[in-house]
């Protein structure tokens, strides 16, 4: 004799409820950490471990937060921000800004940059790509091109301000190889000139590939 069992749909749905995407992501991270820990105990190298993290998406929470922040920075960049520095060139450019600021070979802000260019000063201009409204700096690239001064955009005005040793977000800076007053020591001058030449060469190469 066949028996028919009727089930309550509401109770079945509660019992067989599927986990949320957040729960699955958390379980995925736990499994990834356990997997990498076991590999570490087996003697796997750090480079191999990093490669596994990168290709499987099992990075740490701090790495995930950094990638999210980087994506947000790029999303805030204006469409006209070209040429835009890549990750390596951006790092080199900001390092050069910091070195120029310490050597007092840096002009900060739109007014100072425009004034220096009109006075005939040469150098390298770094412009922030997340300025709003963008009209604040739209005239700067035209002025730089007329003066034959290379320029490059970086994603963040905040990062540009930190590199320029100033607390306020900076729209643009002009890097020169000679200070406004005084003279640099030979060691400082050589390091600044070397970094400057490298970044300018990379900027010109990037610009030539775009236009």
Automatic annotation (TrEMBL):
GO terms for cellular component: box H/ACA snoRNP complex. SUPFAM superfamilies: L30e-like. Keywords: Nucleus, Ribonucleoprotein, Ribosome biogenesis, RNA-binding, rRNA processing. The keyword rRNA processing applies. One of its GO terms (biological process) is snRNA pseudouridine synthesis. One of its GO terms (molecular function) is RNA binding. InterPro entries: eL8/uL1-like, H/ACA_rnp_Nhp2-like, Ribosomal_eL30-like_sf, Ribosomal_eL8/eL30/eS12/Gad45, Ribosomal_eL8/Nhp2. It is found in: Nucleus, Nucleolus. It holds the Pfam family Ribosomal_L7Ae. Residues 94-178 form the Ribosomal protein eL8/eL30/eS12/Gadd45 domain. Residues 47-68 are annotated as: Disordered. Belongs to the eukaryotic ribosomal protein eL8 family. Required for ribosome biogenesis. Part of a complex which catalyzes pseudouridylation of rRNA. This involves the isomerization of uridine such that the ribose is subsequently attached to C5, instead of the normal N1. Pseudouridine ('psi') residues may serve to stabilize the conformation of rRNAs. Common component of the spliceosome and rRNA processing machinery. PANTHER family: RIBOSOMAL PROTEIN L7AE FAMILY MEMBER (PTHR23105). This is H/ACA ribonucleoprotein complex subunit 2. It comes from Zingiber officinale.
